[in-house]
Write a structure and sequence with these properties.
The protein is mainly β and 123 residues long. It is 0% helix and 63% strand. A five-stranded antiparallel β-sheet has the order 1-4-5-8-9, with no helix packed on it. A five-stranded antiparallel β-sheet has the order 2-3-6-7-10, with no helix packed on it. The mean pLDDT is 90.
């Protein structure tokens, strides 16, 4: 850390994982799949600001797709299956991180499962 002269991790995530699965059903125009992913806490530092953000749970989604609906591909997806919440903690300083605090924020963004319909292709 150039401000304090101490060792710390660089901005960003330390680790993440993602599982992505897709299965085409033989002899049919149908396919289905699922995806799940997660990241470690994300740290961001500036001379006058620091932020930590993370998800409470992994994200997850499942989809069902038909590859030929009047020549178009149609996919229905249900996402955020685990009701993951995004949490962010911020500290802003008047001048630099070794000085007085200007403000602090700690908030959680809650979203519920949502649905998506995608249509792709050309006529």
């Amino acid at each position: 850390d150039p401000l304090f002269g101490t060792n710390r991790q660089f901005n960003g995530n330390r680790s993440s994982w993602k599982v992505d699965f897709r299965q085409d059903l033989p002899g049919t125009p149908w396919t289905w799949g699922l995806v799940s992913e997660n990241q470690s806490k994300n740290y961001n530092y500036r001379l006058d600001f620091q932020e930590t953000s993370f998800d409470s749970l992994p994200t997850g989604a499942v989809f069902l797709e038909h590859k030929n609906v009047l020549g178009l591909k149609v996919r229905a997806t249900v996402a955020n299956l685990f009701n993951s919440r995004d949490r962010t903690q911020q500290v802003s300083y008047v001048d630099r991180r070794d000085g007085p605090v200007e403000y602090m924020r700690d908030y959680t963004l809650t979203s519920h499962p949502f649905y998506r319909l995608q249509v792709s292709g050309t006529f």
